[in-house]
Amino acid sequence: MSTELVEDETQFYCKAKKYWKDVPATVDGMLGGYGHISSIDISGSKKFLQRFLRDGPHKMGTSNALDCGSGIGRITKRLLLPVFKTVDMVDITDNFLSKAKNYLGEDAKRIGNFYCSGLQDFSPEPNRYDLIWVQWVIGHLTDDHLVAFLKRCKSGLRPNGIIIIKDNMTQEGSVMDEVDSSICRDMDLVRKLIRQAGLSVLAQEKQENFPDEIYHVYSIAMR
Ligand SMILES: C[S@@+](CC[C@H](N)C(=O)[O-])C[C@H]1O[C@@H](n2cnc3c(N)ncnc32)[C@H](O)[C@@H]1O
Q1: What are the strands of the beta sheet with 86-91, ordered from one edge?
Q2: Which protein residue has the closest C-alpha to ligand 1 atom 25?
Q3: pTM
Q4: Domain with 73 in it: what CATH number?
Q5: How much distance in Å is there from the Cα of 59 to the middle of ligand 1?
Q6: Which domain does 77 fall in, by range?
Q7: Dist. CA 88 → ligand 1 center (Å)
Q8: Which atom of ligand 1 is nearest to 71's Cα?
Q9: What is the pLDDT of residue 193?
Q10: How far is the CA of 16 from the centre of ligand 1 (A)?
Q11: pLDDT (tens digit, 9 = 90+) per residue, 132-165?
């Protein structure tokens, strides 16, 4: 388990909130100085998502998507808005959501809702989303909160809807990052928490062509 790394839950959340408050509302800020890998990330995500947009048993609708831990909307802009009619964004940092309107430009009018909330406190509207995208934010939730959040996301899905988590994974065990107050887990634990939420994994893929020095990044689709 990784939650044993969290000695004080209130501190764990407060520290993260404080960290993100001071981060510039830019693509580089969203990616901790790795802004240059954004295009590779988005291309990999497009490829991963494509299998659920083609005709077949897993084909999903393209009405509404939810971007969780959206930041300024880096993913909303380049991955979600080109596919979905409307996108909702949820993030704990109000400054990022305010800047999103400008960053998204003309397309900001297709954002249905900007929710300023921690995912630990957020409940997606039931039966609303074809896709719930959760990238580079699960480390900010404790194990119990992640499971509970995924259960609420499951209720937020429309028929044939899916949840995609894309995040850093350690090779083995959990590692705490004291700077941004997040936990990086290994794949076994993430898959176990997904199962505990009552979800089944449909596909999993490693992001290719990322720099060698960063954690491995995986996309996992589930419903
Ligand atoms: C590494 S950035 C990733 C942003 C975006 N997903 C992307 O890939 O461009 C992490 C984001 O999670 C947000 N965040 C941190 N803790 C959160 C929490 N408990 N609930 C919701 N959002 C949170 C931060 O404000 C920040 O926007």
Answers
A1: 111-116, 86-91, 64-68, 129-135, 157-169, 216-222, 201-206
A2: 93
A3: 0.98
A4: 3.40.50.150
A5: 28
A6: 3-222
A7: 14
A8: 27
A9: 98
A10: 9
A11: 999 999 999 999 999 999 999 999 999 999 999 9
